[in-house]
From TrEMBL, chains A, B:
Residues 22-82 form the HTH tetR-type domain. Residues 45-64 bind DNA. InterPro entries: Homeodomain-like_sf, HTH-type_TetR-like_transc_reg, HTH_TetR, Tet_transcr_reg_TetR-rel_C_sf, TetR_C_16. This is TetR/AcrR family transcriptional regulator. Pfam families: TetR_C_16 (PF17920), TetR_N (PF00440). Residues 1-13 have a biased composition (Basic residues). It comes from Streptomyces pacificus. The lineage of its organism: Bacteria, Bacillati, Actinomycetota, Actinomycetes, Kitasatosporales. SUPFAM superfamilies: Homeodomain-like (SSF46689), Tetracyclin repressor-like, C-terminal domain (SSF48498). PANTHER family: HTH-TYPE TRANSCRIPTIONAL REGULATOR RUTR (PTHR30055), TRANSCRIPTIONAL REGULATORY PROTEIN (PTHR30055:SF235).
Length: 204, 204
């Protein structure tokens, strides 16, 4: 994967301001996302991420810590577009189910955002360290933000049931590819699933 | 894994009637299920399955064919308890959603049936050959049998959406283990999810 503004360098680069600033951090994050997506959790190393980003592995450690923590950051940045939580919750309770499923499907329909999400899902299903990261992320970032605005009993469980449905759709549509689910128009899924999410998120 | 009635033999066993009859077939199937569950799709071999069942690899081929076909048979036998489709559909449309989710959760709650299902899910998410088997199985056995009794438009898509929700619940409850979904009582899940499946399966 190449990044227009970030040509790869060979060998150990000198640390200039540009290489240790926010641009380098962003480049490392993009490289991490690409490495985890291409190689999976097991075969990705902090050294490899550094190499792909054109920086020293020590700089990866400096910004993100352990491999697990780099993975956590990559998960976060991968889900960020799906979250856009202010947009989803800002519109109020009415239609929140529809906005949530449309946003989720939109991120999965885009191949650039689908690849890292697939990698995360596969890694979480096969490695406890990755499962732990996804668990922490789902709880801390995604569900708690959605739950905070819900005024229903068992709101956490409800948010998780909504999330489970969307994850299951991603599995059957994009990984297992069962027909017709794999090829129906996204809006058909939105129309069918929105009432389910709406019920989980808003009806007591 | 040992099976009470089937002590392991060393070396190439002589084929007696008992070793090539239905008992041997069943023993191979149980061994295949255990091998795929323990080792995953990649690391399981027809030879290893034969060894675990105490029969020659040729007998495994004789009964089931290729590794992919052995996997397909193992998938089928693993899902069989969840299907019990006559029970689920025999009761009529009313309560079909509740019976379906209760049956599904019941199979996952039982550690003996959970292990092979987890193995199948993991394999399908990481190997196209395994995904193909699950796709074929989901379509041919599970969904078509459920769909046959539904008299709603888009019944196949609806059955897949119901399946997607249950698979997503399995992923979040048993693999990622997000709280509270991972520890709530099964009946709480049944109560929340039944109306969703009922709507997908019966409401136009």
């Amino acid at each position: 994967m190449t990044h227009g503004a970030a040509p790869r360098r060979r060998g150990r680069p000198a640390r200039t301001a540009a290489e240790t600033g926010p641009a380098a951090r962003e480049r490392i994050l993009q490289a991490a996302r690409a490495e985890f997506a291409q190689r999976g959790y097991d075969k990705t190393s902090v050294r490899g991420i550094g190499k792909a980003a054109g920086v020293d592995a020590a700089l990866v450690h400096h910004y993100f810590g352990t491999k697990e923590e780099v993975f956590a950051a990559a998960v976060e940045v991968s889900f960020e577009p799906a979250l856009a939580v202010p947009d989803i919750l800002g519109g109020g309770r009415e239609g929140v189910g529809e906005r949530l499923v449309r946003s989720f499907i939109g991120v999965w329909e885009n191949p650039a955002t689908r690849a890292p999400l697939l990698a995360i899902l596969r890694s979480a299903l096969t490695h406890e360290a990755a499962a732990k990261v996804l668990r922490g992320f789902l709880l801390r970032r995604m569900l708690e933000r959605i739950v905070a605005d819900l005024d229903v009993p068992d709101s956490k469980l409800r948010a998780e049931l909504a999330a489970s449905h969307m994850i299951g759709i991603a599995v059957l549509r994009y990984v297992i590819q069962v027909e017709p689910l794999a090829t129906v128009e996204p809006e058909e899924i939105v129309a069918m699933v929105a009432p389910t999410l709406q019920r989980y998120l808003t009806e007591a």
